Amino acid sequence: MLTPTFHLIGLPTDCNSSFTRGPAAAPQAIRAALWSDRGNLAAEDGQEIGHDFLLEDRGDLPLTETAGDDAIIRAAVAESLGAGAIPLLLGGDHAVSFPVVEAIAARHGPVNILHFDAHPDIYDDFEGNPRSHASPFARILEAGHCRRLVQVGIRTLNRHCRQQADRFGVEIVPIADFSPGRVPVLDGPLYVSLDLDGIDPSEAPGVSHPEPGGLRTREVLTVLHAQTAQIVGADVVELNPRFDSNDRTAILAAKLVREIAATAARNLR
User: Fold this and answer.
1) Which of 116, 96, 52, 56 has its CA nearest to residue 265?
2) Residue 230: is it exposed, middle or buried by C-beta count within 10 angstroms (0-12/13-18/19+)?
3) Could you tell me where the beta strands, DSSP code E, fall in 3-109?
4) N or C: which end of the chain has fewer CB within 10 A?
5) pLDDT tens, N- to C-terminus, the chain (269 residues)
6) Total-model pTM
7) For residues 18 and 136, what is the distance between their CA atoms, to the nearest angstrom?
8) How far apart are CA 263 and CA 254, in angstroms?
9) If we measure between CA atoms, which residue out of 211, 249, 251, 234 comes closest to residue 22?
10) Sign of the Cα pseudo-torsion (21, 24, 27, 32, in order)
11) Is 181 helix (H, G, I), strand (E, B) or coil?
């Protein structure tokens, strides 16, 4: 059996961020933590990068923060899929998930999405921007690219977003009295979207919109490791190095990259 290959693709853009910018610098920070000698290349299940699965770094895309960036992202994801790899995207703000999922759905058909976040990101538009980082899942759902969206860690659900969730049939696992066993095991093809502010800011301080009362890293990993379907792509987004403390959030992001890849590799066997 061929060794599973993942393409690490950086998306250095934050033009659709609200409040503040900074996530465009995240891909390099995550790479630095991922390949640092202070860490290691083993996932928690014992699989190792370079032995049990390959992680090929494709560098950052030449994004210009214009409307043409979506096409650049779609083309890179399509190229990765065409090469038989699984694309693993490093944001960047969460707006990048729309063109990524668009390209994956063109290949695999509508996907199921497991989404970790403090925010539901289903605004019809936010502050007049329908491509805001607060809106990608509205765009994905209305385009028919997603069959089932399960959101974990949400703790900022306002009236508009509740209406949007009802409109699209979004499944939000309550954060109150959360336990990983409440998150369903999804069928494939499965896409994983992990916004770092879904994790409590005590563990992930380097984000633009910290929201107390969030998930613990161990809870995220338990939910992720429970998934058994074919994972066809993933993103790790919204690290803001401007607000990070001793690279804690970048190190966490690097660990999540390893664990997503290891879980996807395991699920192919």
Assistant:
1) 52
2) middle
3) 5-11, 54-60, 86-91
4) N
5) 689 999 999 999 999 999 899 999 999 999 999 999 999 999 999 999 999 999 999 999 999 999 999 999 999 999 999 999 999 999 999 999 999 999 999 999 999 999 999 999 999 999 999 999 999 999 999 999 999 999 999 999 999 999 999 999 999 999 999 999 999 999 999 999 999 999 999 999 999 999 999 999 999 999 999 999 999 999 999 999 999 999 999 999 999 999 999 999 999 98
6) 0.97
7) 13
8) 14
9) 249
10) negative
11) helix
Structure tokens at 200: 């409590």
Q: How far is CA 93 from CA 37, 83, 208, in A?
A: 27, 26, 10
Task: Dig out the tokens for 41 from the structure.
Answer: 């290349």
Structure tokens at 153: 């860690």
